[in-house]
Protein backbone atom coordinates (compact mmCIF):
# COMPACT_ATOMS: atom_id res chain seq x y z
CA UNK A 1 0.00 0.00 0.00
CA UNK A 2 1.49 3.30 -1.04
CA UNK A 3 2.08 6.11 1.45
CA UNK A 4 -0.01 8.45 -0.71
CA UNK A 5 -3.00 6.07 -0.70
CA UNK A 6 -2.77 5.68 3.09
CA UNK A 7 -2.68 9.45 3.59
CA UNK A 8 -5.81 9.96 1.45
CA UNK A 9 -7.63 7.30 3.43
CA UNK A 10 -6.72 8.97 6.73
CA UNK A 11 -7.99 12.33 5.46
CA UNK A 12 -11.36 10.76 4.45
CA UNK A 13 -11.74 9.14 7.89
CA UNK A 14 -10.98 12.42 9.66
CA UNK A 15 -13.46 14.33 7.49
CA UNK A 16 -16.20 11.78 8.21
CA UNK A 17 -15.60 12.02 11.96
CA UNK A 18 -15.76 15.83 11.88
CA UNK A 19 -18.95 15.74 9.82
CA UNK A 20 -20.63 13.31 12.23
CA UNK A 21 -19.63 15.52 15.16
CA UNK A 22 -21.79 18.42 13.90
CA UNK A 23 -25.42 18.49 15.03
CA UNK A 24 -28.20 18.56 12.48
CA UNK A 25 -28.49 22.37 12.53
CA UNK A 26 -24.73 22.85 12.51
CA UNK A 27 -24.81 24.68 15.84
CA UNK A 28 -22.94 22.16 17.98
CA UNK A 29 -19.68 20.28 17.78
CA UNK A 30 -18.86 17.12 19.69
CA UNK A 31 -15.66 17.02 21.72
CA UNK A 32 -14.15 14.13 23.68
CA UNK A 33 -13.22 13.64 27.33
CA UNK A 34 -10.03 11.82 28.20
CA UNK A 35 -12.18 8.81 29.03
CA UNK A 36 -13.65 8.75 25.55
CA UNK A 37 -17.16 10.16 26.21
CA UNK A 38 -18.42 12.97 24.02
CA UNK A 39 -19.30 16.50 25.12
CA UNK A 40 -21.27 18.98 23.04
CA UNK A 41 -19.94 22.48 22.25
CA UNK A 42 -21.77 25.29 20.53
CA UNK A 43 -20.20 26.92 17.49
CA UNK A 44 -20.04 30.17 19.46
CA UNK A 45 -18.04 28.43 22.18
CA UNK A 46 -15.73 26.89 19.60
CA UNK A 47 -15.05 30.29 17.98
CA UNK A 48 -13.94 31.70 21.30
CA UNK A 49 -10.78 29.54 21.03
CA UNK A 50 -9.55 31.89 18.29
CA UNK A 51 -11.59 34.75 16.89
CA UNK A 52 -10.61 36.21 13.53
CA UNK A 53 -11.40 39.74 12.42
CA UNK A 54 -12.81 38.06 9.32
CA UNK A 55 -15.51 36.51 11.52
CA UNK A 56 -16.80 40.07 11.90
CA UNK A 57 -16.65 40.89 8.20
CA UNK A 58 -13.11 42.19 7.65
CA UNK A 59 -11.90 41.44 4.13
CA UNK A 60 -8.14 42.14 4.24
CA UNK A 61 -7.76 42.80 0.50
CA UNK A 62 -6.37 46.35 0.86
CA UNK A 63 -9.39 47.76 -1.00
CA UNK A 64 -12.43 47.28 1.24
CA UNK A 65 -12.68 49.56 4.29
CA UNK A 66 -12.28 47.19 7.25
CA UNK A 67 -12.55 49.84 9.98
CA UNK A 68 -16.06 48.99 11.21
CA UNK A 69 -15.50 45.23 11.09
CA UNK A 70 -12.24 45.38 13.04
CA UNK A 71 -13.73 47.78 15.60
CA UNK A 72 -16.65 45.41 16.11
CA UNK A 73 -14.24 42.53 16.65
CA UNK A 74 -12.26 44.59 19.18
CA UNK A 75 -15.40 45.60 21.07
CA UNK A 76 -16.64 42.02 21.33
CA UNK A 77 -13.39 40.11 21.87
CA UNK A 78 -11.18 42.34 24.02
CA UNK A 79 -13.36 42.01 27.08
CA UNK A 80 -10.81 41.02 29.70
CA UNK A 81 -11.51 37.28 29.55
CA UNK A 82 -8.24 36.13 28.05
CA UNK A 83 -9.47 36.26 24.45
CA UNK A 84 -7.30 36.20 21.33
CA UNK A 85 -8.10 38.28 18.25
CA UNK A 86 -6.41 37.03 15.10
CA UNK A 87 -5.63 38.95 11.91
CA UNK A 88 -5.09 36.38 9.12
CA UNK A 89 -2.76 37.08 6.23
CA UNK A 90 -3.88 40.17 4.35
CA UNK A 91 -3.79 43.96 4.03
CA UNK A 92 -6.42 45.63 6.21
CA UNK A 93 -7.46 49.10 5.11
CA UNK A 94 -8.76 51.41 7.85
CA UNK A 95 -9.93 55.02 7.64
CA UNK A 96 -10.28 55.93 11.34
CA UNK A 97 -8.57 55.07 14.61
CA UNK A 98 -9.27 51.67 16.17
CA UNK A 99 -10.23 52.32 19.79
CA UNK A 100 -9.02 49.84 22.41
CA UNK A 101 -11.44 50.08 25.37
CA UNK A 102 -10.49 49.53 29.00
CA UNK A 103 -9.73 45.80 29.11
CA UNK A 104 -7.16 43.25 30.18
CA UNK A 105 -5.67 39.83 29.56
CA UNK A 106 -6.07 39.66 25.78
CA UNK A 107 -3.85 39.16 22.71
CA UNK A 108 -3.93 40.62 19.20
CA UNK A 109 -1.89 38.57 16.74
CA UNK A 110 -1.18 38.62 13.03
CA UNK A 111 0.14 35.86 10.79
CA UNK A 112 3.53 37.67 10.72
CA UNK A 113 4.87 41.17 10.25
CA UNK A 114 5.26 40.48 6.51
CA UNK A 115 1.93 38.72 6.01
CA UNK A 116 -0.45 40.90 8.05
CA UNK A 117 -0.56 44.63 7.34
CA UNK A 118 -2.80 47.31 8.88
CA UNK A 119 -2.77 50.44 6.71
CA UNK A 120 -4.26 53.74 7.91
CA UNK A 121 -5.73 55.67 4.96
CA UNK A 122 -6.54 58.85 6.92
CA UNK A 123 -3.56 61.11 7.53
CA UNK A 124 -2.68 62.39 11.01
CA UNK A 125 -4.73 59.59 12.62
CA UNK A 126 -3.64 56.81 15.01
CA UNK A 127 -4.06 53.12 14.23
CA UNK A 128 -4.61 51.56 17.68
CA UNK A 129 -5.73 54.13 20.27
CA UNK A 130 -5.85 52.99 23.91
CA UNK A 131 -8.46 55.09 25.67
CA UNK A 132 -9.62 55.21 29.27
CA UNK A 133 -7.17 53.97 31.90
CA UNK A 134 -6.04 50.71 33.46
CA UNK A 135 -5.76 48.47 30.41
CA UNK A 136 -3.17 45.81 31.34
CA UNK A 137 -1.90 42.28 30.79
CA UNK A 138 -2.15 42.24 26.99
CA UNK A 139 0.07 41.61 23.96
CA UNK A 140 0.27 42.65 20.31
CA UNK A 141 2.40 40.56 17.95
CA UNK A 142 3.07 39.79 14.30
CA UNK A 143 1.71 42.92 12.58
CA UNK A 144 2.95 45.64 10.24
CA UNK A 145 1.64 49.15 10.98
CA UNK A 146 1.69 51.71 8.16
CA UNK A 147 -0.05 54.62 6.44
CA UNK A 148 -0.96 54.71 2.77
CA UNK A 149 1.11 57.90 2.38
CA UNK A 150 4.20 58.80 4.39
CA UNK A 151 3.30 61.17 7.24
CA UNK A 152 5.20 64.38 7.92
CA UNK A 153 6.57 65.54 11.25
CA UNK A 154 3.55 67.88 11.48
CA UNK A 155 1.17 64.89 11.64
CA UNK A 156 1.69 64.32 15.34
CA UNK A 157 -1.41 62.12 15.72
CA UNK A 158 -0.10 59.59 13.20
CA UNK A 159 0.88 57.13 15.95
CA UNK A 160 0.70 53.38 15.40
CA UNK A 161 0.02 52.41 19.04
CA UNK A 162 -1.10 55.43 21.09
CA UNK A 163 -1.86 55.52 24.82
CA UNK A 164 -4.25 57.93 26.48
CA UNK A 165 -6.55 60.71 25.39
CA UNK A 166 -4.87 63.56 27.20
CA UNK A 167 -6.28 62.89 30.69
CA UNK A 168 -3.80 63.36 33.52
CA UNK A 169 -3.06 60.34 35.68
CA UNK A 170 -4.00 57.58 33.24
CA UNK A 171 -1.87 54.43 33.43
CA UNK A 172 -1.31 51.46 31.12
CA UNK A 173 0.80 48.61 32.41
CA UNK A 174 2.15 45.06 32.08
CA UNK A 175 2.02 44.60 28.32
CA UNK A 176 4.07 43.23 25.43
CA UNK A 177 4.61 44.38 21.86
CA UNK A 178 6.72 42.05 19.74
CA UNK A 179 7.61 40.98 16.21
CA UNK A 180 6.08 44.10 14.62
CA UNK A 181 7.19 46.56 11.95
CA UNK A 182 6.38 50.28 11.94
CA UNK A 183 6.65 52.50 8.87
CA UNK A 184 5.49 55.79 7.27
CA UNK A 185 4.15 57.30 10.51
CA UNK A 186 5.10 59.93 13.08
CA UNK A 187 5.63 57.87 16.25
CA UNK A 188 5.40 54.11 16.63
CA UNK A 189 4.65 53.35 20.31
CA UNK A 190 3.81 56.51 22.21
CA UNK A 191 1.93 57.96 25.14
CA UNK A 192 -0.24 60.97 24.33
CA UNK A 193 2.06 63.98 24.15
CA UNK A 194 -0.26 66.63 25.61
CA UNK A 195 -1.14 65.25 29.07
CA UNK A 196 0.46 61.88 28.59
CA UNK A 197 -0.22 58.91 30.87
CA UNK A 198 2.41 56.72 32.46
CA UNK A 199 3.21 53.30 31.04
CA UNK A 200 5.13 50.63 32.92
CA UNK A 201 5.86 46.95 32.99
CA UNK A 202 6.54 47.16 29.25
CA UNK A 203 8.37 44.67 27.03
CA UNK A 204 9.01 45.73 23.43
CA UNK A 205 11.07 43.22 21.47
CA UNK A 206 12.06 42.03 18.00
CA UNK A 207 10.53 45.05 16.28
CA UNK A 208 11.67 47.08 13.27
CA UNK A 209 11.24 50.85 13.14
CA UNK A 210 11.75 51.72 9.49
CA UNK A 211 13.56 54.69 7.98
CA UNK A 212 10.23 56.16 6.84
CA UNK A 213 9.18 56.94 10.44
CA UNK A 214 9.43 60.66 11.24
CA UNK A 215 9.39 60.51 15.04
CA UNK A 216 10.15 58.36 18.06
CA UNK A 217 10.01 54.59 18.05
CA UNK A 218 9.13 54.69 21.76
CA UNK A 219 7.87 57.80 23.57
CA UNK A 220 6.99 57.75 27.28
CA UNK A 221 7.16 61.22 28.83
CA UNK A 222 4.34 61.37 31.40
CA UNK A 223 2.69 64.54 32.60
CA UNK A 224 2.27 64.84 35.52
CA UNK A 225 5.62 63.23 36.25
CA UNK A 226 5.10 59.83 37.86
CA UNK A 227 7.25 56.72 38.10
CA UNK A 228 7.48 54.36 35.15
CA UNK A 229 9.19 51.18 36.38
CA UNK A 230 10.38 48.24 34.32
CA UNK A 231 10.50 49.32 30.70
CA UNK A 232 12.49 46.89 28.55
CA UNK A 233 13.22 47.40 24.86
CA UNK A 234 15.37 44.72 23.26
CA UNK A 235 16.42 43.08 20.00
CA UNK A 236 15.05 45.88 17.81
CA UNK A 237 16.34 47.74 14.76
CA UNK A 238 15.74 51.50 14.78
CA UNK A 239 16.48 53.54 11.65
CA UNK A 240 16.67 57.28 12.24
CA UNK A 241 17.31 58.36 8.65
CA UNK A 242 14.19 60.57 8.52
CA UNK A 243 13.55 61.14 12.22
CA UNK A 244 12.96 64.68 13.50
CA UNK A 245 13.36 63.66 17.17
CA UNK A 246 15.17 61.12 19.34
CA UNK A 247 14.12 57.53 18.63
CA UNK A 248 13.73 56.58 22.30
CA UNK A 249 12.40 59.17 24.78
CA UNK A 250 11.66 58.25 28.40
CA UNK A 251 11.40 60.33 31.55
CA UNK A 252 10.74 59.74 35.27
CA UNK A 253 11.57 56.07 34.96
CA UNK A 254 12.58 53.63 37.67
CA UNK A 255 14.25 50.71 35.88
CA UNK A 256 14.88 51.06 32.13
CA UNK A 257 16.66 48.35 30.13
CA UNK A 258 17.81 48.80 26.53
CA UNK A 259 19.32 45.56 25.25
CA UNK A 260 20.64 44.42 21.86
CA UNK A 261 19.40 47.46 19.95
CA UNK A 262 20.79 48.49 16.58
CA UNK A 263 20.55 52.17 15.68
CA UNK A 264 21.12 53.06 12.04
CA UNK A 265 21.61 56.49 10.50
CA UNK A 266 20.41 59.74 12.04
CA UNK A 267 21.60 63.32 11.54
CA UNK A 268 22.75 66.07 13.90
CA UNK A 269 21.48 67.84 15.89
CA UNK A 270 18.80 65.17 16.50
CA UNK A 271 20.20 62.46 18.77
CA UNK A 272 19.10 58.85 19.12
CA UNK A 273 18.20 58.45 22.81
CA UNK A 274 16.94 60.98 25.39
CA UNK A 275 16.31 59.63 28.90
CA UNK A 276 15.78 61.93 31.88
CA UNK A 277 15.26 61.59 35.63
CA UNK A 278 15.58 57.82 35.82
CA UNK A 279 16.93 55.86 38.79
CA UNK A 280 18.51 52.98 36.90
CA UNK A 281 19.25 52.74 33.16
CA UNK A 282 20.98 49.65 31.78
CA UNK A 283 22.39 49.87 28.27
CA UNK A 284 23.58 46.46 27.08
CA UNK A 285 24.98 45.26 23.73
CA UNK A 286 23.69 48.29 21.81
CA UNK A 287 25.21 49.45 18.54
CA UNK A 288 25.09 52.74 16.61
CA UNK A 289 26.19 53.00 13.00
CA UNK A 290 26.40 55.65 10.26
CA UNK A 291 25.22 58.64 12.29
CA UNK A 292 26.09 61.95 10.57
CA UNK A 293 27.30 64.73 12.88
CA UNK A 294 27.66 67.14 9.93
CA UNK A 295 30.14 69.93 10.70
CA UNK A 296 28.79 70.82 14.13
CA UNK A 297 28.98 67.71 16.31
CA UNK A 298 26.24 66.11 18.39
CA UNK A 299 25.30 63.92 21.37
CA UNK A 300 23.95 60.52 20.34
CA UNK A 301 22.73 58.90 23.60
CA UNK A 302 21.73 61.68 26.03
CA UNK A 303 21.00 61.19 29.73
CA UNK A 304 19.98 63.83 32.27
CA UNK A 305 19.67 63.16 36.01
CA UNK A 306 20.12 59.43 35.49
CA UNK A 307 22.17 56.56 36.88
CA UNK A 308 23.44 54.72 33.78
CA UNK A 309 25.39 51.50 33.40
CA UNK A 310 26.61 50.80 29.87
CA UNK A 311 27.79 47.28 28.94
CA UNK A 312 29.46 46.32 25.65
CA UNK A 313 28.25 49.28 23.61
CA UNK A 314 29.69 50.38 20.29
CA UNK A 315 29.57 53.38 17.99
CA UNK A 316 30.79 52.79 14.45
CA UNK A 317 31.16 54.65 11.18
CA UNK A 318 30.24 58.09 12.52
CA UNK A 319 30.20 60.51 9.57
CA UNK A 320 30.82 64.26 9.40
CA UNK A 321 33.45 66.91 9.11
CA UNK A 322 33.75 68.78 12.39
CA UNK A 323 32.62 69.66 15.88
CA UNK A 324 32.75 67.70 19.12
CA UNK A 325 30.58 64.57 19.31
CA UNK A 326 29.80 62.37 22.30
CA UNK A 327 28.36 58.86 22.09
CA UNK A 328 27.31 58.42 25.75
CA UNK A 329 26.57 61.90 27.07
CA UNK A 330 25.45 62.43 30.65
CA UNK A 331 24.83 65.79 32.29
CA UNK A 332 22.75 67.46 35.03
CA UNK A 333 23.74 65.03 37.74
CA UNK A 334 24.12 61.90 35.62
CA UNK A 335 26.32 59.06 36.87
CA UNK A 336 27.74 56.87 34.11
CA UNK A 337 29.56 53.56 34.56
CA UNK A 338 31.18 51.98 31.50
CA UNK A 339 31.96 48.26 31.14
CA UNK A 340 33.16 47.74 27.57
CA UNK A 341 32.96 50.31 24.79
CA UNK A 342 34.12 50.35 21.17
CA UNK A 343 34.56 53.76 19.50
CA UNK A 344 35.16 54.02 15.75
CA UNK A 345 34.54 56.81 13.26
CA UNK A 346 34.76 57.86 9.62
CA UNK A 347 35.10 61.57 10.37
CA UNK A 348 37.03 63.99 8.18
CA UNK A 349 37.14 66.62 10.94
CA UNK A 350 36.21 67.12 14.57
CA UNK A 351 36.50 64.58 17.37
CA UNK A 352 34.37 61.69 18.61
CA UNK A 353 34.44 60.99 22.36
CA UNK A 354 33.09 57.72 23.67
CA UNK A 355 31.58 58.99 26.91
CA UNK A 356 31.28 61.82 29.38
CA UNK A 357 29.17 62.54 32.47
CA UNK A 358 29.09 64.56 35.66
CA UNK A 359 30.25 61.47 37.59
CA UNK A 360 32.05 58.43 36.16
CA UNK A 361 32.62 55.90 38.99
CA UNK A 362 34.25 53.17 36.87
CA UNK A 363 35.55 52.67 33.34
CA UNK A 364 36.93 49.47 31.81
CA UNK A 365 37.67 47.96 28.39
CA UNK A 366 37.41 51.03 26.17
CA UNK A 367 38.69 50.34 22.65
CA UNK A 368 39.36 53.29 20.34
CA UNK A 369 39.77 52.51 16.64
CA UNK A 370 38.82 55.50 14.50
CA UNK A 371 41.43 58.06 13.48
CA UNK A 372 39.48 60.94 15.07
CA UNK A 373 38.11 59.05 18.07
CA UNK A 374 39.37 59.47 21.61
CA UNK A 375 38.98 57.82 25.00
CA UNK A 376 39.89 61.11 26.67
CA UNK A 377 36.77 62.33 28.47
CA UNK A 378 38.18 65.48 30.05
CA UNK A 379 36.78 68.07 27.60
CA UNK A 380 33.73 68.23 29.88
CA UNK A 381 34.77 70.31 32.88
CA UNK A 382 35.21 68.28 36.02
CA UNK A 383 34.59 64.92 34.34
CA UNK A 384 37.08 62.21 35.21
CA UNK A 385 36.70 58.56 36.17
CA UNK A 386 37.06 57.73 39.83
CA UNK A 387 38.51 54.41 38.73
CA UNK A 388 39.81 53.89 35.21
CA UNK A 389 40.49 50.16 34.98
CA UNK A 390 42.14 50.47 31.58
CA UNK A 391 44.76 52.88 32.86
CA UNK A 392 45.34 50.80 35.97
CA UNK A 393 45.54 47.46 34.19
CA UNK A 394 47.74 48.64 31.34
CA UNK A 395 51.07 49.92 32.65
CA UNK A 396 51.45 52.56 30.00
CA UNK A 397 54.81 54.29 29.88
CA UNK A 398 55.62 57.89 29.02
CA UNK A 399 59.23 58.74 28.19
CA UNK A 400 60.24 61.98 29.89
CA UNK A 401 62.57 64.52 28.35
CA UNK A 402 65.16 66.82 29.91
CA UNK A 403 62.42 69.12 31.23
CA UNK A 404 60.10 69.56 34.21
CA UNK A 405 56.56 68.16 33.83
CA UNK A 406 53.19 68.52 35.60
CA UNK A 407 51.15 65.31 35.53
CA UNK A 408 47.34 65.12 35.28
CA UNK A 409 44.89 62.38 36.19
CA UNK A 410 45.03 61.31 32.52
CA UNK A 411 48.82 60.81 32.57
CA UNK A 412 50.18 57.29 32.27
CA UNK A 413 51.15 55.38 35.37
CA UNK A 414 54.85 55.03 34.62
CA UNK A 415 56.98 58.10 33.89
CA UNK A 416 60.41 57.00 32.60
CA UNK A 417 63.52 59.18 32.28
CA UNK A 418 66.46 57.69 30.38
CA UNK A 419 68.34 60.85 29.35
CA UNK A 420 70.93 62.98 31.13
CA UNK A 421 69.67 66.07 32.96
CA UNK A 422 71.24 69.42 32.18
CA UNK A 423 69.52 71.17 35.10
CA UNK A 424 67.50 70.29 38.20
CA UNK A 425 64.08 69.03 37.09
CA UNK A 426 60.73 68.33 38.78
CA UNK A 427 57.82 65.96 38.22
CA UNK A 428 54.62 67.30 39.86
CA UNK A 429 51.86 64.84 40.73
CA UNK A 430 48.23 65.75 39.91
CA UNK A 431 45.87 67.21 42.51
CA UNK A 432 42.52 66.93 40.66
CA UNK A 433 40.58 64.00 39.19
CA UNK A 434 42.09 61.64 41.76
CA UNK A 435 40.60 58.30 42.82
CA UNK A 436 41.55 55.84 45.50
CA UNK A 437 44.21 53.45 44.24
CA UNK A 438 45.59 55.78 41.55
CA UNK A 439 49.34 55.21 41.15
CA UNK A 440 52.33 56.89 39.57
CA UNK A 441 55.82 55.47 39.34
CA UNK A 442 58.68 57.77 38.39
CA UNK A 443 61.80 55.95 37.20
CA UNK A 444 65.18 57.52 36.42
CA UNK A 445 67.39 55.08 34.52
CA UNK A 446 70.00 56.59 32.21
CA UNK A 447 73.49 55.55 31.15
CA UNK A 448 74.63 59.02 32.28
CA UNK A 449 72.08 60.45 34.72
CA UNK A 450 73.57 63.94 34.80
CA UNK A 451 74.82 65.97 37.73
CA UNK A 452 71.41 67.32 38.73
CA UNK A 453 68.54 66.24 40.98
CA UNK A 454 65.13 64.96 39.91
CA UNK A 455 62.47 65.91 42.46
CA UNK A 456 58.92 64.54 42.63
CA UNK A 457 56.54 67.14 44.08
CA UNK A 458 53.35 66.15 45.90
CA UNK A 459 50.95 69.16 45.73
CA UNK A 460 48.34 67.47 47.92
CA UNK A 461 50.30 66.69 51.09
CA UNK A 462 53.86 67.88 50.33
CA UNK A 463 55.18 64.33 50.55
CA UNK A 464 58.03 65.08 48.15
CA UNK A 465 60.86 62.81 47.08
CA UNK A 466 64.27 63.70 45.57
CA UNK A 467 66.56 61.51 43.47
CA UNK A 468 70.13 62.56 44.06
CA UNK A 469 72.35 64.14 41.44
CA UNK A 470 74.27 61.72 39.20
CA UNK A 471 72.15 58.80 40.45
CA UNK A 472 69.42 56.60 39.03
CA UNK A 473 66.42 55.74 41.17
CA UNK A 474 62.66 55.30 41.41
CA UNK A 475 59.66 56.18 43.58
CA UNK A 476 56.09 54.82 43.53
CA UNK A 477 53.14 56.84 44.83
CA UNK A 478 49.59 55.65 45.56
CA UNK A 479 46.63 57.85 46.35
CA UNK A 480 44.32 57.28 49.30
CA UNK A 481 43.07 60.64 50.49
CA UNK A 482 46.68 61.80 50.07
CA UNK A 483 49.69 60.76 48.02
CA UNK A 484 51.68 58.09 49.85
CA UNK A 485 55.10 56.72 48.97
CA UNK A 486 54.83 52.94 48.66
CA UNK A 487 58.38 52.20 47.50
CA UNK A 488 61.56 54.09 46.61
CA UNK A 489 65.23 53.40 46.09
CA UNK A 490 68.25 53.58 43.81
CA UNK A 491 68.92 51.65 40.62
UniProtKB/TrEMBL annotation:
Coiled coil feature spans: none
The record's Pfam families line, in alphabetical order, gives: Pect-lyase_RHGA_epim
GO MF? hydrolase activity
InterPro entries from the UniProt entry: Pectin_lyas_fold, Pectin_lyase_fold/virulence, RHGA/B-epi-like_pectate_lyase
Q: Which residues form the Rhamnogalacturonase A/B/Epimerase-like pectate lyase domain?
A: 51-117
Read off the Gene3D superfamilies from this record.
Single-stranded right-handed beta-helix, Pectin lyase-like
Lineage, top-rank taxon, reads: Bacteria
Q: Does the keyword Hydrolase apply?
A: yes
Keyword set, alphabetical order: Hydrolase
UniProt name for this protein: Glycosyl hydrolase family 28-related protein
